[in-house]
Amino acid sequence: YVASAWGASLSVVDVNTGAATSIGSFSGAPDAVSGMACDRTSGTMYVCGTNVSTSYIGVLDVTTGVITDVFATAGIPGLIDIAIDGAGQMYGWCIVNDASYLIDKTDGTVTSLGSLGYDLNYGQGGNYNINDGIIYMTAYANGAPGLYVLDPITGSMAPVSGVPSGQCTALGIPGTGGGASGSWLTLDYYENDVLPGGGLDNVPTNFNAAGMVAGEIHTATITFTSTPDVGTIAIPVTLIIAGDPLVAPTDLTVELLNDLTGEVRLDWAWSTDAFQFFIVKRDGLPLGTTADLFFIDMLPDYGTYCYTVQSYYDEGYSVPSDEVCVEWPLPEIFVNPTFHAADVWVDHQYIWTTTISNIGIGTLSYDIPPFNSCEHEIVMYDDFGDGWNGGSVDIYVDGDLVLNTTVASGSGPVYDYFDANDGSLITTTWNAGGWPYECSYYIYDGFGNLVFSDGVGGVDPTGGAGFGACAGFIVDIDPISGFIAEGLSQDVDITWDATGFPAGIYYQEFTIEHNDPVNPPVIVGNQMTVVVPAQFAGLVTECEGGQPIAGVTVTAGPWQTMTANDGTYSLYVDEDMYTVSFEKLGFMNIDVVDTTALAGVVTPIDVCMYEDPYAVPFVTATVEYPDEDFCTVDWSLPEGPYELIYDDGVAEDLFVWATYGNENAVKFTPAGYPANVFGGRLYVGDGLFPAGSWLGTDFVVMVYGDDGAGLPGAMLDSMAVTVNNYGWVEFLGFDVTIESGDFFISMLQLYPAPNAAPLGIDFTMPQVYRSYSRTTLTPAWSSSVYQDFMIRAYIDGSQTDGVTESNQMVYPSKVDREEASKHFMTANNSPFVTRPGTVKAGTTGVIEGYNNNSEAVLYYTVARISDFDPLLGPEFGTLLPLN
Rounded to whole angstroms, how far apart are CA atoms 769 and 726? Predict the structure, then answer.
């Protein structure tokens, strides 16, 4: 078919004779036809046209010349010709901007391929060659005609040869028969070699009655030529359409069941006469047959795949079902960081975190193979010097055979090597030959240390066992494997251990293997610099009597410790300059500023602390009637704030919620009323758990009243607290007065683990049963499965009441441990408290010098306030010290 008369009318050409027959004028398009191409996948003829400002594509009825489904090709001003490849993809090229494009046949959408690389002018032609899959162009380029090929990837054109005319404006390539109803006759291929001496080639020939009706008759001729020329054979072919159409499957669906393995399921509908089976095709190639209405396929690789299903009857094949495509999405791994360096104190552990992200589509799987693997050695001997005479030894690592070795001749030593992980079980099996008592061997680990020996001393070898060892400092990676959905990430914690490593720099790698087919396995570098820390140490005493003070909090930067019962302390820090602070309730704080700590050096700091001069709790003045000029003034002994304690100061475990918004609380019973709650402190551990970045983060502490049932009730006060140090974190600023009964102090977690501070748990008996918890999912308070949380209260008030035991019975919550592990975690995975118990009393912190009558007071100052307005209060009067 050709566009004649400058693109105004349609003609059909007999390719054997060159005779042309006019069909009629084109109609339905905005401009003359400039190009034409057949889509062999559907038997549809497409045309294009242009006025060198705008262009279009459309569908041509080759029997009438009518053009329908016309779409503008925005972005191509001069669409001079088109071609359609074997997959149905339309290509086009432009004589205005000398570029090539992909064109969507359904709506004219244009995608740029690239520059043609030549200056096109005048008439152009082109078509797709089904025989070799190449698009050929008869182009008038750079002022001369020629035959070119189009690169479907880059969009450029490359010269092949000349052409016999100046402007070859149309190009047709034979390859399929056909008629007005489309390509009904095709061959699987159109050229091949035939071997001599009776060689044979069966060429599959295909008939397609799609779109035809009973009674139609179609004819064609298949012509075979030969090289060298031994003749030309023409085979007449007739297609007669008879009977009802062979029903094809419908409603085909394709679903990717597993984006890790590429498992795909096909389902379809079918209901008609008896048939033999269904043929399933993937990307046009037969995949398998089935008599079911479903099919399971395993994709060979990531990418997009298209399926059809055909019914096979006694009479032949049905047309394929509608094509349905599925994508096996490609995950893409991104690891950040892939290198980490840090200083670690001698004999200490260190944890850092890297993040594995899936920035592709589909599920990413990863696995970290053993990371502490190293070469081990076997050294073999023969006492007689003639080898092991057929004997050998098998070496197993964790039950897997890794090496079979022997001494072939001589007395040795003969060396051989195998890999084993740190801590792997190494076993050997002896395979006896002649004179086994002559044979012996030694197994050495990655440090060169002997693991075990066998057959030494003239005895027969019997096999041995021992554990491998490697010089790696990475002791744990968690989680070591996993699956990451599209767009999500997984934090991976890496634990280093500097135990046994002298000061120096050490390097170790581990590998992250994954199912990303594009990127290689990710290697993560670890550089540990082992350093000897600096140290502060000394003694804290009471200034007046020189007695040691226990429980003083010593802080330098983010590090913290407490003095022992004898007043001594030791605090490791990094080399730097610090302000070292000493704090204890009841004593004046001391700051030792600008103190330098040197690595490997103990810097002594001894201090003494003065007691706080607390005020007397009450004063009374009684007029001495009838003599009204005199009054008697009485007052109580001084009493200061005290610390209410329900733990022994040592945490056996640490607790942290998995998510934010959850709370833990401790119930307090003051030692007297009224009691002013002004602060407190809680224990967060030494920084090793959880393995996140939570130094410098915040949490909230709140004071609750009692709801009357022994649980937290109304919130009375709250404050945000920043974690500036490990150990005990103090908070001050509450102003809550408790007139009677109990109150609660709660810790509200603001961040998810592992980037949130934990809370210490004291398991030492007796347990006081004063710890409570609640979550955002279950907002009602209940007794905690862990007793006792290490929260303490600072209270200002008299200690007039005895702190006694309670007869209240507490029944711990019954919680499924597996379910609970989804909501919180602990450092040591301690068991839950399951037995009920009674609420017990705690202790109060002793403030020496102000809590008992025997402590000497140097003097009191008595003052009188006068001349004030009773409505305003004595603070507006005149203060006169009397004595």
Answer: 26
Per-residue pLDDT of 620-666, as tens digits, reads: 899 988 888 888 999 877 766 788 999 999 999 999 999 999 999 99
Average pLDDT, the chain: 88
If 0-12 CB within 10 Å is exposed, 13-18 middle and 19+ buried, where does residue 622 land? Answer: exposed
Under 8 Å between Cβ of 115 and 98: yes
Residues 560 and 427 in one domain: no
Looking at the structure of the chain, the number of domains it has is 7
Assigned domain for 851 exists: no
Q: How far apart are CA 509 and CA 858, in angstroms?
A: 68
CATH of the domain at 352: 2.60.40.10
For residues 721 and 730, give the distance between their C-alpha atoms in angstroms, rounded to a whole number: 8
Lookup: tokens for 92: 């086009």
794 strand-pairing partners: 643, 679
Count of H helices and E strands in the chain?
1, 72
The contacts of residue 628 (CB under 8 Å, 6+ apart) are none
124 and 64 share a domain? yes
User: 340-365 pLDDT, tens per residue?
Assistant: 999 898 888 899 999 999 998 888 99
Residue 605 to residues 467, 469, 573, 576, Cα–Cα distance (Å): 46, 42, 14, 15
Of the candidates 328, 356, 384, which is a domain's last residue?
328
* Contact call for residues 226 and 232 (beta carbons, < 8 A): yes
- Which residues, including other chains, have CB under 8 Å from residue 514's CB and lie 6 or more apart? 331, 333, 364, 365, 366, 367, 521, 522
Task: Return the number of other C-beta atoms located less than 10 Å from residue 578's C-beta.
Answer: 21
DSSP per-residue letters across 37-61: EEETTTTEEEEEEE-SS-EEEEEE-
Give the residue-averaged pLDDT of 226-244: 86
Query: What is the C-alpha to C-alpha distance for residues 185 and 238, in angstroms, rounded to an integer?
Result: 10
699 with 825, same domain: the answer is yes
pLDDT band at residue 246 under the 50/70/90 scheme: confident
- Looking at the structure, tell me whether residues 723 and 598 fall in a common domain: no
In a domain, 627, yes or no: no
Whether pLDDT at 803 is above 60: no
pLDDT band at 175 (very low <50, low <70, confident <90, very high): low
Q: Which pLDDT score, from 0 to 100, does residue 183 have? A: 63
CB 382 within 8 A of CB 461: no
Q: List pLDDT tens digits, range 413-462.
A: 999 999 898 889 999 999 999 999 999 999 999 888 999 999 999 899 99
In this predicted structure, the answer to whether residue 208 has a pLDDT above a threshold of 90 is no
**Residues 732/720, Cβ–Cβ less than 8 Å:** no
Residue at 66: amino acid letter: V
Question: Is 867 inside any structural domain?
Answer: no
Q: How confident is the model at residue 182 (pLDDT cuts 50, 70, 90)?
A: very low
349, 374, 496, 505, 602 from 502: Cα distances, Å: 14, 20, 14, 9, 18
Q: Is 630 exposed, middle or buried (0-12, 13-18, 19+ CB in 10 A)?
A: exposed
The verdict on 518 and 591 lying in the same domain is no
User: Could you tell me if residue 856 is inside a domain?
Assistant: no
490 burial via Cβ count (<10 Å: 0-12, 13-18, 19+):
middle
C-alpha to C-alpha distance for 177 and 175, rounded to whole angstroms: 7
Co-location of 322 and 451 in the same domain: no
User: In terms of domains, do 524 and 539 share one?
Assistant: no
The mean-pLDDT minimum among 59-63, 77-81, 214-218, 696-700 falls in 214-218
Q: Final residue of a domain: which of 467, 494, 511?
A: 467
- The range of the structural domain enclosing residue 600 comes to 534-609
Range 121-133 average pLDDT: 86
Helix H or strand E encompassing 820: helix 817-820
Burial (CB < 10 A; 0-12, 13-18, 19+), residue 255, is exposed
Structure tokens at 812: 């711990």
| Residue 699 and residue 797 in one domain | yes
